[in-house]
Amino acid sequence: MSLQNTPASERVHIAFFGRRNAGKSSLINAVTGQELSVVSDVKGTTTDPVYKTMELLPIGPVVIIDTPGYDDEGDLGELRVKKTRQVLNRTDCGILVVDATVGMGECEKALVALFEERKIPYLTVYNKSDVVPAERQNGLSSDGKESGTTATGTDKQIPLYVSAGNGTGINELKECIGALLHTEEEKRRLIGDKIAPGDVAVLVVPIDEAAPKGRLILPQQQTIRDILDAEGMPLVVKDTGLSGAFSALERSPAMVITDSQVFGKVAKLVPSEVPLTSFSILMARYKGFLSTAVEGVRTLENLQDGDKILISEGCTHHRQCGDIGTVKLPAMIRKFTGKEPEFVFTSGKDFPEDLTGIRLVIHCGGCMLTERELTYRKKTAEDERVPFTNYGIAMAHMNGILARSVAMFPEVAELLR
Predict the structure, then answer these.
(1) pTM of full prediction above 0.85
(2) Which of 29, 98, 57, 66 is nearest to 181 (CA)?
(3) Which domain holds residue 318?
């Protein structure tokens, strides 16, 4: 997969924040070397977050986000500020742009507090430094801390003075962003760490009315790639071809990975000694919330009529008549519990900040969301003591095969003993 084909969920999200007319858009254009954002002397030119996927050297594939001014006013301004706060949920690296002719104010300090509260690595950058005398630049930061810290607040950095107008300090800013992101820990594996060279992994991929035309969905593509990276051999079949695949193999596969929609059917066909799991379970592991999802699914055992269940998808797509989130999953829950819960649905970037009244959150695998955004959604539920699980875990539980589905992950399987 080329850098330009890297999915947005796997790209580093770099967001620029600050007050209106601090020069955020101009700075983005200078950093990227492209006219990505509209520039104007009029305050509030950027009215909605603007996302642009690109390759930014020396960092690699990124998503650059331009945000509205955090000091916006009025009813529309409040909505824009709310959208800016939502961008924080998916930000891997924050760039606080300070107007060097004004300096740090309450607006900037409020953003610093949000960065530190959410543990977002960030840099503070004084823009328009070309119109500020050098002897004044050392006094731009009121207490020293705002000049740029990591999310821990312990690694004080040299203040960054740049000019989007004449290009001063732009290369240094890109190097600092790269250095800050370099400290992030390496991503988890989907399944490659459980594959030995030469192992065969059978992947069960149903092709029905909900399947995208001419391609596989992202978790299936990523799983295939991770197996190949581990020198394994992925064998991809439809659910109707699973029995034939076992007959054709000279030895049992190392594991079977299935789409959650056919979990029950596949479990009956796969011998008990062959490890079985799902793409959705692997995504929960990859995004770092598998243990939380296994613990949260127990709530299904105690549902009552009228309990409100939030079913949330990370992407937006045209709903099919047999849609898994809005049709199949609710039907399974009704049958499993014998109750009539109330279902609430969200998709894409929409996720409620207030979960009052929600009994359980069931999320998709999150392949289109960054780990940071999924972590935010999970934490939102945890803060309000709302159990959080995902499609694959819920379906495995309702099919009575959850313990088998997580058996290859001992630290998670222990939670079910």
Answers:
(1) no
(2) 57
(3) 289-398
